[in-house]
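[09:14] KT: can someone run the structure on this one? pasting the chain below
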Amino acid sequence: MGNEPVVGPNDDRDAAAESGSDATAETADADADAGADVGSETEAETGTETETDGGVRPYTVRLELVDEPGELLRALSPISDNGGNLLSIHHERGNITPRGHIPVEVDLECPPERFDDIVEGLRDAGVNVIQAGAERYGEEISIVFVGHLVENDLSETLSRIESEAEAAVIDLSLAAPDGTDATSSARLRLAVDSGRTDAALESIRSIGADKDLTIVEPLLGGEA
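[09:31] RB: done, structure tokens below
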């Protein structure tokens, strides 16, 4: 009995302090691990968002639409279907194109690799694309039709040029000094894809022959 160790108040406090230190250390380690996990998740999320934001660019597409119900919706569907996000639409009802259609300017954003799919989707849907992105079509040519243009349905001639020659009519000047029943002339400025000038002209020659029209061609680069 006399040799048994005596436990005093100070010894109890030392044991409690040591136990508290171990618990605190374990808690701190757990908090550090949790903080590291949260930090890693936050960095991963931030990295993903940054990559997504950096991979999307704004573009402007200029279209020519027939003034009929449903035409605008038909033109917008290929944009969303091919991964584009609409930003704004400017419907220029007061600015009629040479064929009597309405120009529409669409601002959108999409990954760069999807933009060509959007433009192709618009064309496949029968939408006339006047301008895609910063550039208009790669080449411009000017031609002159001479003959009975009005009697031979000038509007139908222009429609065939756009559908068969795959050329956009971006400017038209009609001269009929002796009246629309007589011989008249029309100067057309056309936009075509790069490398398609020869094919477009071949189609235009065929159209002119069908309508008994004389063609003065080509005035390259849109110059008079």
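[09:33] KT: thanks! The chain has a mean pLDDT of 74.
[09:34] RB: yep, looked fine to me
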